[in-house]
Specification:
elongated, binds zinc ion, EC 6.1.1.16, Four Helix Bundle (Hemerythrin (Met), subunit A), Rossmann fold, 15 strands, alpha/beta, 3 domains
Length: about 500
Amino acid sequence: MIRLYDTKVRDKVDFNSLERGKVGMYVCGPTVYNYIHLGNARTFISFDVVRRYLEWRGFDVTFVQNITDVDDKIINKANEEGRSAAEVAAEYTEAFIEDMRAVNVQDPTIRPKATEEIPAMIELVQELVDTGHAYEVDGDVYFSVRSYPEYGELSGRNVDEMEGGHRELRADGKGVEDRKRDPLDFALWKAAKPGEPAWESPWGMGRPGWHIECSAMSRKYLGLPFDIHGGGADLVFPHHENESAQAKAACGCGFANHWMHGGMLQVNSEKMSKSLGNFMLLREALKTTRPEVLRFLMLQTHYRSPLDFSDERLDEAAASLGRIENAVRNLKWALENVQDIPSPLDTRKLMDLGREARTNYILAMDDDFNAPRALGVVFDFVTDVNTMVGDKTISLSDVPAVKDALETIVTLMAVFGVEIALDAQGEGAADYPAEVLGLAADLAGYSGDDAQAAVDALLAARADARAAKDWGTADAVRDGLVGLGFVIEDTPQGARVTYEG
Ligand SMILES: [Zn+2]
């Protein structure tokens, strides 16, 4: 039984999908006026792991994520840059999709854009007006918070203790506090200012408020109620409280059956902010860090806890992931170099350990998607595999057990969205020191800039030198590689090299 922490219940609850075998999931997408930063990336990666896990457990998941492509921030940026809001939105929508794919976040099943869903929003606003939950003032439409007694149920806030939290500017730039019936009320529809994107509506030309977008799009694409609504913890109030109030007040039905929220990301133990100078864009981070390493680092903290990002933690994550990749390379190599020898393995024990790892992984992930614990399970298994198989040459009768171990590691990491490539050597190459290129140029006549190709060229040069009994060159290659942190091992099948840093 999967259990998850439900923000609204403020406790872990059993997860029962509304329709057997299916999950409808909505995660608020970005407002596209800039590249996304690491904190945004963390939220999207966390929910990608939730989705991948549910799919792996057999659920057919419909994952909806909106693009907020009309908003004050987009309009402001467009004005600053002297271009249209649509151009700004299109550029950063494309960048967002690129960034998500770069960190192996699966595309949503449906990715609606706010500007293409205006009729659904107008319909919902109209329903709220018709049912007395909303009212119009000069082209603006506001949600009447006090018309909906459950307001505050998600965030645990009491309406009578709230101040006028929804400080919004009207289209003419004046404060709205004096126009609303109650300072708590918030905008569903905003009358248009000249030059801004605007759509026709029963209340004149205007555009939707941010909160109504998600209520309308989740309802349209998932139907109400749906299983899981997710987002960063900063969205609980007011965004999700408002989404929920709008949707439920209009239909008199449920909205999200469960609410899940991801923790924030800090850099070097400080809140990430432009003023502290530690604000990091995902695409900047990816210039120096492999996406698998970034995901690995994020998996090491539970999705609801604050995550501390630092160079030290990145290095640790790279080293830990390297150990897993190394074990996979060893297993792959063993399977490709089976010998007719007595079995060196206790294959039954290896199979048992694999089964145990899969079971414990599921127990950890079933417990509110506890990825750090599940990662620990994989790590323990990798340690066992290294002890049992290591870089041994195996016999034909070992193949099923070794294959099982390999598949267990690769599959469990893939559920995390960390793909461990299966080529025997290539994967660690991103971590190879750049000096290997110079060494290959000196000793192997290599002139490219691919570290893996440079290592291959050096090994080939060494093999040639040994064949020609040119021990001086062969030793120079070996000493050069060892000096850079490589370990070379000669086997009957040729030299194997691993990078230990
Ligand atoms: Zn939303």
